[in-house]
Amino acid sequence: MAVKRKPLIAGNWKMNGLTKDARALAGGLAKRMAKSKSPAFELLICPPAPLLDFCVNAVKGSGIKVGAQDCHTAEAGAHTGDVSASLLRDMGCGYVIVGHSERRSNHGETDKLVRAKAEAALTAGLKVIVCIGETLKQRNAGLTLNVNRQQLRASLPAGATASNTVIAYEPVWAIGTGKVATPNQAQEVHSAIRKSLKRKMGASEGDKTRVLYGGSMNPSNAAELLHLPDVDGGLIGGASLSVTDFWTIADAA
Ligand code: PEP
Q1: For residue 64, is it within any domain?
Q2: CATH no. for residue 95?
Q3: For 87-146, how does the pLDDT look when each residue is reduced to its tens digit (9 = 90+)?
Q4: Which of 15, 79, 226, 233 is most buried, by CB atoms within 10 Å?
């Protein structure tokens, strides 16, 4: 019998939004969530770190979860400007994204570092969304599956289970570009990720682990992507900055 995985619809606000925007976005989503009886999806917003506390309070009681976009590997110490996973947990976050391609490219984050961050997050009691994905050059060179398998192998935290870890497949060429993976392209990679997860975590955990698609998902293309057999939700950047667009995507799940 096929395993049921509750779709996770996660909004990555990136470095966008002031307090007034967070009020409108988080507040607007909380209102929609309150009206929807028992949604078939889990909704998560990942605002910039300084807005986390505000958002945790704005969505309190709505069922919407709040997550961070990054964390440090250490629990505390001399790391100016960084944020620990234990502080995120203490503030009321449920999730943290690690290894987003913008962190990998802008900050030179390696698989090893991503894995260490993910392990720090699990230790702190957070769930992790581990991002992987190939560049256009790698896709054009026929390396897509190898690159994703390798990133997954090296970034997956020790102790990963279906309930504490989510994988986000985000082709780098599709992030913020308006170019979206075709359903065939997405399903091919998601199915390869699922096979690798089963090998690493055991068949049952691998089957239950959610694998999100990310990369220019919007209200027009969401349904097609979200209904693919191995796509269990989305990590959404641009379209998560509009209550209507983000909610329409979630509804499509
Ligand atoms: C992202 O930031 O993870 C992302 C997928 O962005 P966008 O939806 O804007 O492509």
Answers
A1: no
A2: 3.20.20.70
A3: 999 999 999 999 999 999 999 999 999 999 999 999 999 999 999 999 999 999 999 999
A4: 233
Tokens of 46: 């990942």
Number of domains in the chain: 1
Return the residue whose CA atom lies nearest to atom 6 of ligand 1.
237
CB of 133 within 6 A of ligand 1: the answer is: no
pLDDT band at 1 (very low <50, low <70, confident <90, very high): low
79 part of the active site: no
CA of 78 to the centre of ligand 1 (A): 31
102 carries an active-site annotation: no
Domain-embedded: residue 123 = yes
Phi/psi of residue 103, each to 5°? -75, -40
> What φ, ψ does residue 65 adopt, rounded to 5°?
-100, 155
For residue 242, being part of any structural domain is answered with no
Look up the pTM and report it: 0.97
Which ligand 1 atom lies nearest to the CA of residue 234?
A: 5
Q: Is 38 part of any domain? A: no
* d(C-alpha 82, C-alpha 85), whole Å: 10
Mean pLDDT, residues 200-221:
97
Range of the domain at 174: 84-237
- State the catalytic residue, choosing from 109, 119, 134, 170: 170
For residue 194, report the phi and psi dihedrals to the nearest 5 degrees: -60, -45
- Asked if 40 contacts 91 with a C-beta cutoff of 8 angstroms, the reply is no
